[in-house]
């Protein structure tokens, strides 16, 4: 092979490598894949009680209240695909544990890993404690995405066990939301609260510090209805799982294709083929380079010997 032909082949190979890089970036293919992902226009802010009373064993007769709450939040997220979810938890204090996100896996993890306060951690519960933080979160959401509709879902048992703090009203945020719901858990008859973090009762139950008897947590359904009235949303006393589809539909979420229209991926992607060709040319380039290095070493070896 002449030097001219060899040079031409090297040039063609390197041009081919560059062109294949460009082709891979363009992601060639044909057909249009179905894109199930949709984007919703609603922001759902979950306000959830994490005080020890949510461990009381009177959901479905014997399960912790928080078990029912977590199951309902998971079902609600499934019924609102593409919506943004955020979580504000309250107990001793109120804080955002999950900023608004369209990542359903992140919301699912936040729900699953939500932990309750230990029996002696809290200073007493108040259903109105998260109002200032909720108002701030709603205002920031409105500034960042004014076109979106904001939904508040309050989750708790309504039990107030302290008078400490400033009286707040959810009516202060009612004008900033497009809907929502108050989901109540527990019974007015009350139930004991497991002492252990796993809520199995293996370590016994929370004791009343004044009497020494097993403490009973009583849901305050009237307080929950008051919260619902202030927000201007319906109240649902949740005693068993299921039945949240109607609630999700009441939020009247609208959906758009989340693929970006013309940016839908091809049904039959040919990027892999360009990748295979690119790999072949790169291997040829490496082989040619190795041969050049090997040849230069053999040419230089006699010269080095002649200098000795």
Question: Total number of β-strand segments?
Answer: 12
Which residues sit in consecutive blocks of at least 5 with pLDDT less than 50?
259-263
The main sheet comes to: 6 strands, mixed
Mean pLDDT: 85
Helix/strand order, N-terminal first: HEEEHEEHHEEEEHEHEEH
**Oligomeric state of the chains present here:** single chain
Structural class: alpha/beta
* Termini gap: 35 Å
Shape, per Cα inertia axes: elongated
Rg for CA atoms: 31 Å
Number of helices, where a helix is a run of at least 4 consecutive DSSP H or I residues: 7
Across the major sheet, the strand order is: 5-4-3-6-7-10
How much helix is in the residues? 25-40%
Care to describe what's here?
The chain has 308 residues and is an alpha/beta fold. The protein has 7 helices and 12 strands. The strands form 4 sheets. Strands 5-4-3-6-7-10 form a 6-stranded mixed beta sheet, with helices on both faces. The protein has a two-stranded antiparallel ribbon with strand order 1-12. The protein has a two-stranded antiparallel ribbon with strand order 2-11. About 2% of the residues have low confidence.
